[in-house]
Each structure stands twice: as C-alpha cells, then as structure tokens.
C-alpha cells in the first residue's frame, strides 16, 4: 500500500495518507487526520477514471473548519437535541457547536483527531483511536476501530467497532461528499437519487430532530422512486435534505442509490445502521477550493450519512446507540460503485 506524508499539524504531529487499491481500477486515498476519504477514483461506463469525492489537495484545507468533508464523525454523528442527554440519573452537557444543538461530536470530535493506521495488503486500512473519558463531554473510555476496505467488486466498505468501559452513546458515520460526474464538475442537479425509506423525521428551522416519525408518502422527502436532484431539492426543508429512519437491526440492506446519467457512474449504499441523513451540500458557499482548483459552491456534492439515531439515548425505539462494557458494537456501511 502506498504511504506518504500529507503534512504536519501545528503541534508537529505527522499526517499520513494511504492509497488503497481495489477491483476495476478503483482506488481510495485515506488520511490519518480524521480518517478522511481524501480521494476516490471510480471508472465511468467507458472505463475513464475520475475522483468522485470532494476534498482538499493539502492539509491546510482540512485544518480550516471544513464542512466535514470525507471524515469520520462522532462520537455521535448528527444533532443531539439541546446538546445534552440523560444517562441513568446523570445529565451530560455537550458543546452546543451548532446552536441550539450538539453536532457531529463537538468542536474537536473524531474528525479532528489523528488515528493510528495499520494497512493490510493493498486493499484494507485499519484505523485506531482511543477517546478518553470526558472527551468533548462524553462519558467512558472508548476504543474505536474503523476499517476501510476496497473489494474486487468495486465496493468501499466502512466498518466500525466500538468498545467502552462504561455505558456511553456512540454512533459513527463517514461524511463523504459525492459527485459522480467527478470532483470539481459543478452542481449535481443532473444526478438521480433514490432513498429506500418508508419514514423520515421532520426537522425545524434549526434542523432539530422532532422526535416524530412520519411516513414519506405525499411529502417532498419521498424518494422511494429515483428522482432528479435538481427537481426535488428546492422542495425540501431549507433545501438541506432529510433524516430517514431505516430498519437497522444489524441487517445489511440497501438504503440509497444515486446515478449520474452522463457518465453512467452509479452508487448503491447498503448499511445495517438505523438512520440515513441525506445532505444536499446546501451550505457550500465557495469558501473552500477543491482538488480541481475550483471553489465548491452550493450543491456541488451530496452526502449519504449512515449512522445510529442521534437522540438514541432519549428515543431508543428509533435506534439504540448505547455501548455497554463488555459488549463491543459493530456496524457496516458499503458504498458499491458501478457504471451503466
């Protein structure tokens, strides 16, 4: 596996990149800073490769407060309502870094940490991080293993394993922004998106979870049939994208599909998680210039974030995220690429 230096943090810590190689010419570049998927090259219907994920060409891009491009997010991905949760008889107060809520693990979540890397062959990279008790306000010492693997069938597999020495909420995701036409090619209006969920959870003007499951039928969130991105996004709340409720239960099932008709590139997302946050890239505003040298503007990429239910401590019926001592939890999400 190709291993290179990618720069140093202000405190001198080295950031490395690892290049994974899988079948059909697909390759991925992973950083030890935040476990970031910095690049992902995928063929089109004619076999031409293009990088289909948004990101920066150098470490400086990621040291800024970038919008979670390609990173591991947590300890809890998504928004925890009010930035607090009750565990037993104790209330834990977290950083309200996305007022009025806590978002993606806080100011210095897992996306801002250096992970220890162990490559296995040319197609698999394991990343390790120990998050100490009290980090970003969360209880318990937790040991996290994240595995990235490229298969011979053109799949990028994202596997997580978490162990804790006391009860604590943990729910991780990968926050990659996709543009199947190729990074730097502009808006994704011509992509077709399908989300195979029967229910979603409406949010308010602050994107706070309502705690109410609603059927997608008859709403703008109904993407059970493939629809053109540019046609349905204007009708979504804040043009942001919705939080979908999935069966979960440890069963790997197809949650979403996306396709770019021009190139033929297609993506299928399979997961055993209980939630999927679809994000349209509405907040991209041109302030970050990508690997292509072009600024990332609104809707230049989209995310399909698979994770547990963020408020799972309060609403376990929507997806349990509590990790208990002696009971490691494992989750898997698969990004399967094809060209048609």
Short description:
This protein is mainly β and 340 residues long. Helices cover 3% and strands 39% of the residues. The chain has a single domain, classed as Beta-galactosidase, Chain A, domain 5 (Distorted Sandwich).
Keyphrases for this structure?
340 residues; mainly beta; Beta-galactosidase, Chain A, domain 5; 9-stranded antiparallel beta sheet
Could you outline the blueprint of secondary structure elements for this entry?
Elements: E1 2-8, E2 14-21, E3 27-31, E4 37-43, E5 49-51, H1 59-63, E6 72-73, E7 79-80, E8 84-87, E9 90-93, E10 102-103, E11 116-120, E12 124-131, E13 142-150, E14 155-164, E15 168-169, E16 173-174, E17 192-195, E18 199-201, E19 214-215, E20 227-228, H2 229-232, E21 243-245, E22 253-259, E23 265-271, E24 275-279, E25 303-307, E26 322-323, E27 329-339
Antiparallel strand pairs: 1-2, 2-3, 3-4, 4-5, 6-16, 7-10, 8-9, 11-12, 12-13, 13-14, 14-27, 15-26, 17-20, 17-22, 18-19, 18-21, 21-24, 22-23, 23-27, 24-25
């Amino acid at each position: 596996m190709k291993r290179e230096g990618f720069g140093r943090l202000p405190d001198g810590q080295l950031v490395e990149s690892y290049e994974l190689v899988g079948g059909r010419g697909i390759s991925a570049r992973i950083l030890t800073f935040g476990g970031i998927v910095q690049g992902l090259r995928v063929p089109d219907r004619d076999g031409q490769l293009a990088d289909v994920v948004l990101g920066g060409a150098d470490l400086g891009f990621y040291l800024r407060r970038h919008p979670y491009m390609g990173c591991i997010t947590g300890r809890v991905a998504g928004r925890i309502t009010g930035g607090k949760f009750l565990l037993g008889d104790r209330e834990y107060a977290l950083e309200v870094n996305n007022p009025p809520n806590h978002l993606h693990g806080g100011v210095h979540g897992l996306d801002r940490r250096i992970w220890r890397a162990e490559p296995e062959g040319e197609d698999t990279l394991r990343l390790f991080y120990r998050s100490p008790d009290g980090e970003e306000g969360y209880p318990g010492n937790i040991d996290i293993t994240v595995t990235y693997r490229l298969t011979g069938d053109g799949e990028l597999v994202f596997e997580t394993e978490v162990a804790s020495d006391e009860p604590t909420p943990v729910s991780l995701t990968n926050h990659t922004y996709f543009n199947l036409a190729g990074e730097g090619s502009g808006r994704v209006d011509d992509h077709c998106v399908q989300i195979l969920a029967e229910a979603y959870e409406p949010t308010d003007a602050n994107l706070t979870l309502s705690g109410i499951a609603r059927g997608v039928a008859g709403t703008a969130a109904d993407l059970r049939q493939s629809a053109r991105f540019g046609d349905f996004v204007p009708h979504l709340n804040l043009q942001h994208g919705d939080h979908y409720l999935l069966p979960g239960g440890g069963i790997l099932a197809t949650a979403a599909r996306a396709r770019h008709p021009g190139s033929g590139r297609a993506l299928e997302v399979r997961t055993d998680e209980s939630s999927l946050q679809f994000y349209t890239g509405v907040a991209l505003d041109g302030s970050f210039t990508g690997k292509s040298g072009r600024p990332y503007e609104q809707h230049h990429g989209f995310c399909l974030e698979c994770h547990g239910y963020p408020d799972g401590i309060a609403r376990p019926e929507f997806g349990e995220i509590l990790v208990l001592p002696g009971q490691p939890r494992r989750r898997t999400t698969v990004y399967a690429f094809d060209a048609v």
